[in-house]
Specification:
Elements (H helix, E strand, L loop, with lengths): L3 H31 L2 E11 L2 E10 L4 E2 L3 E11 L5 E8 L9 E4 L4 E10 L1
Antiparallel strand pairs: 1-2, 1-3, 2-6, 4-5, 4-7
Length: 120
């Protein structure tokens, strides 16, 4: 008695089952990444006396969906000689993906007023 047709049928069914489960996993991964939620924070520091802000995002269940983020600094720039005065100047970093860091610097003779993160 020869049972090769039964082995072929079982092997074909197993291959079809593995292929459909593999396709389901391949389509599920991008959907999960697109719906990921992040919490973004900005951190201020000094570099050679200049205010610097760096923003970074972490995955979080309580966060919101973020496609891009950037660091924003508001600096007080000192102008004039003798009768000095300050001007508020907003400096924005480049838009980055949630897995990357965005940073921005104020110019020299500047003081840090505020730091924040913009998302979209």
């Amino acid at each position: 008695m020869n049972v090769t047709w039964g082995k072929r049928a079982v092997t074909g069914a197993l291959a079809a089952l593995l292929m459909t489960s593999g396709l389901a996993l391949a389509t599920a991964v991008p959907a999960e990444a697109a719906g990921a939620k992040y919490t973004c924070k900005a951190k201020a520091s000094l570099s050679l006396g200049r205010p610097v802000s760096t923003s970074a995002c972490k995955k979080s269940a309580k966060g919101k969906t973020v496609k891009k983020h950037r660091a924003v600094l508001v600096c007080d720039v000192v102008r004039g000689r003798g009768a000095e005065h300050t001007i508020a100047w907003t400096v924005k970093g480049d838009w980055k993906k949630p897995t990357q860091k965005s940073s921005v610097k104020c110019g020299f003779s500047s003081f840090l007023r505020s730091v924040k993160v913009e998302t979209k």
